[in-house]
Design goal:
The protein is built from no helices and eleven strands. The termini are far apart.
Length: 126
Amino acid sequence: EIQVMECGGGSVQAGGSLRLSCAASGYRNSIRWLGWVRQGPAKGREVVAAIATADGTTYYDRTVKGRFTISQDDAKNTLYLQMTSLRPEDTARYYCAAAPGSGALFPLSVHEYEYWGQGTQVTVSS
């Protein structure tokens, strides 16, 4: 069974940093990408970053590129999202998600993701 569980959210002032973690299990050989998806209040879900499980290739939404870094630690079965230069518009609930990637193959498309954590809240104040 594929399971993902995220933690590390919190409140921070604009310009600050946070690091999110996701414990992932049961996904090897069945998941192509692991990603971080966020949903702000009254907003749809958007994939901000993804990483290919096979070779570590990363993908970023233009709104976070250069500020966020996605990485994985195979030994710990953990996915990370390092967020820097945070802005109030980054305020959202962040989800760790997994995508089989056997169809359209768009790692930044939320429709690719089928397995979700419960989410962790990130609040950035001005």
